[in-house]
Every structure is written in C-alpha cells, then in structure tokens.
Design goal:
A hairpin with a 3-residue loop joins strand 4 and strand 5. Helix content is 29%, strand content 10%. Helix 5 packs antiparallel against helix 6. It has two domains: 239 residues, no CATH class; 139 residues, no CATH class. It contains ten helices and eleven strands.
Length: 418
Amino acid sequence: MQAMRQLALLAAALPLFAQFADTLAPSPENPAIGYFNYLAHPWRDPITLLSQKLRSGTVHLRYEERAGYLRSLLASLNVPVESQLAVFSKTSLQSARIEPRNPRTIFFNDEVAVAWVRGGFIEVASADPEQGVVFYTLEQRPAANPELLRRDDCLSCHRSDASLGVPGMVIRSRYPAPDGMPRLILGGFETDHRSPFEERWGGWYVTGAIAGARHMGNAFVTDEDHPEAMSSETLLSLATKFDTTAYLSPYSDIAALLVFNHQMHMVNLLTRFGWEVRAHAGGEHGGLDALLRDGAKEVVDYLLFVDEVPLPGPVRVSNGFAESFAARGPRDAEGRSLRQLDLETRLLRYPCSYMIYSPVFASLPEPALAAIYRRMWQVLSGEEKDRRYARLTAADRGAIVEILRATKKGLPPYFRPL
C-alpha cells in the first residue's frame, strides 16, 4: 500500500517536472526574434525606457529605510500599491529569504510585475512589446545612480512549457509545508482564469473571499498522505499573519489575484503567437494559414473568457484594488470599460480582456492581428455557432463591440453595431 501511494504521488508530480521539457516554441535566437540580440532588436520594455530616464537624470529613484527603492520604483512605473500580492512559498530566486512571516510581495500593472522581499533585492519582470518578458534586479542599497540589471538567468524557470516556451510569466500553486517549503512530491498547478478554484493560490496569502469557493491559499500541508485536507482560512488583513510594518499594504487582495491569474497567461499567449508568426516569416515554420487560424482561435478564446471558471458566489474584496483598476479606463460615452470588474459571477463585467489595449497586443505582426480580429468578429457577431460560445450572451457581445468601437484604435471597420 505504501509503495502504491508513493507511485501515485510521483505521478502527481510529473506535470511539475514536465514544465522543464523542450517546447516547440520558436528559438529566442531566431533572427526574426533576436531576444538576446539588442543591436538588431532594441528593447522597448518599460524598464529599458525607465533606465534611459535614470541615466539622463530626468527621473530619480528615492531610497527609503524600510522598503528601499520599492515605493519610488512603483511610482516611476505607474504600478499601484493596491495591486500587492503576497507569496509565502519558497519558490523564487530569493527562496532562502521567503517564509510565511516574511513573504515576497508582487505588484503589477499591464506591463510590469515588481517583486520585493524584506531583506532582499527587487525583481522586475518587464514585458517588451515584441520580445516577451525581460527580467531585471535592483540592489537595495543607497546609490547615486541605482541601476536595474538585466538577468537572463531567470529564463531557467521563466522560459518553459509553463510559459508556453517563450520568456514569460509563471503562476504556480503549490502544497506548502508550514515553513513555506513546497512539497514538490505532491505536485502542483500552473493556474489562470480557466483553473478550478480548488487548484489556485497554494503558497499565496489571500485576503478577501469568494462565497462558496474553496482554494489553496492561506494553508499549509501537515499530512502528506492527505494534502487535500489542508484547511484554508479567510483573511481580512495580513497583519494577523506577520508584522506588516515594513510592507506597503496589509493586503493580498483576492480581486488582484483573479486579475493577475488572467493577465499573466494572456501575456504569454500573445507573445507566443507573435513569435510564431515572425518566425514563420523567417522560414522556421510552414503552413501560415493553419498557424494563423489555430493561433487566433486560441488567443480569442482566452481573450473572450470562453473557458473561464464561473465564480460560485460574490467576491468580498479587502482593499481598493477593484476601484483603482477600473478607474484606468478607457471608457465609452456611456462610461463602460473593459476594466470594470464584475466579481459576482465572473471576473469582468464585459468579458473581453483589457489586454487588447496593451503594447504586446498592438505590436503583434499584421497577419496575427488580422487573424485575431477576424476570429473575434466571427464570435462576437454570432457567426460562430458552437455551443461553447453560448455563454457570451447577445447583450455581452453587443456591449463589447460598442466599447471596442469607441475605445480601440485600429479596430477593423467590419466591427459594426450588433
């Protein structure tokens, strides 16, 4: 019986190890990609642009005693403090410093994610419009000219099957021990908005709650024979778990986690599609029509939340993230925005990703953009009859088209009012 249990645990862990397998994504060294070739493909990610301003003296980073450059860096990148998430599992570059009483915090906007752990350095994942995510670190010590250093060694984890084979983001849910060490033999999950809630947020703190939902956040494995029995508690503030004095916020808001889960895979998906189409032009792939058709379908299904797991009940939030997120617009004449959160039965009030406004989307090769728009119109116009799309009601589809017509530059003229 013990041998059978060990085999079962090993089988559960195989998806974890599979993420390091080779993928069929284009090579970053492909001349059409040139991820490591700055001369041929200059970086245009937010950190590169900020670094130029730091060197010219038009922007300065201010050092604080407790959080170092964190607050100043967030302000320079327009990253809201309300987006703070807290991870207590030992799963990052600074795993030795991370534990439940000293979690790693992550702040994000549409283009960057900034991570900070007390006693360590700052990590930044910065999305280049074409190249994928670029990684940097910033030492936490006062300096006349602080410098964000590019770290390609981060690709050992951030370019894998879990990121679709491109330099990207990975959100992992693990079974953590009480000290924060992930019990890798028990397996784990990569999560996005399609994931069951029972698989989400292992090793993460979660403040707020979803009525009727059980998740893995705020919990520890104490019985490895029955990891499913670990009990998650509802938190309204992180202050009940550790000293939050040095932190910018006492929250790891559940609404921010829901948005983060959606966004990270969206960035990877757009980057992967762009790479594939660009590599095809460079001769690495065959069958452009099939590539565009299949890629656009996958992107649009995710963009329109076709396979989103419904919320089992209303979300109770713990800070002002939902309001600050929605306030960033853009809005149509009726005040509607793709950034408005629903948080009753689904994530977004209008189920079309706000990432359609992102530089990553706008910088897709023209054939990829054209294919995505054609597929979007097939779905939104009602031409697509597959029952999978029935969850997009006529009211949803009509509102999305109207909002896009009013707010999205470059929208094809065949997007007519429904």
